[in-house]
Amino acid sequence: MKAVRLTLICHALTQAQKTGRLHHADDAILPLASSPFADLSGVSVLTAPERRACETAALLSGGVEVEPALADCDLGRWRGLALKQLQAEQPQALAEWLQNPASDVHGGESFSALCQRMADWLAAFDRSGEWIAITHPMNMRAVLVQVLGCPLGAGQRIDVLPLSRLDLSFTGQWRLRLG
C-alpha cells in the first residue's frame, strides 16, 4: 500500500461568486494580485474541466491533467441564475434543494449524487505520491461528508471559500489532515 497525499483546492474567486450567482462552466476567475501558491515542484496537478478550475490550475507550475470526475455539480436549469432571482421566483424549490440532499428540482445533479460521484472517485484514486486537485466548493463539501462519514445534510453547513484547501491522506483509508 502506497501513501497518498491529496490536497483539494477550490478555484479562485469568480464574478458569479462575488455577485451571488450560480455558476456556469465558462465562468472565469477574477485577477489575483499575486500567485497564491508556493513552489509546488514535484507535485502532480489535476483539475476539473470548467474554465475557472483550469485558470486556477494554470497558476501552478508544471503540467496539469484534466480530471472529468472533478467537474462541478450540474445545476441544470439554474446554471447562471442569481440566488436573489431564485428566492423571488422559486422559493419553495430553492428551500427544498437547500434542505434535501437528494433534491434535483433544478433538473441537474443532486448533492447526494455528487457525494456518490466523489466517493467513487476517491475509492478509485490509486495514484501514489503527492497530488493537488483544483475543484469546486460543492465537490469539496461532498468529499468532506464522505471522508468524515457525516450525514449528507451536513454538507450545507460547510462554507468553502475561493482558494480553500482540503488536505487528505490515504494509507488504507482516507483521512482528513489538519495542519
UniProtKB/TrEMBL annotation:
Top-rank taxon: Bacteria
SUPFAM superfamilies in UniProt: Phosphoglycerate mutase-like
InterPro entries assigned: His_Pase_superF_clade-1, His_PPase_superfam
Gene3D superfamilies: Phosphoglycerate mutase-like (3.40.50.1240)
Chain ranges passing through the membrane: none
Pfam families hit by this protein: His_Phos_1
Official protein name in the record: Histidine phosphatase family protein
Organism the protein comes from: Pseudomonas oryzicola
Classification of source organism: Bacteria, Pseudomonadati, Pseudomonadota, Gammaproteobacteria, Pseudomonadales
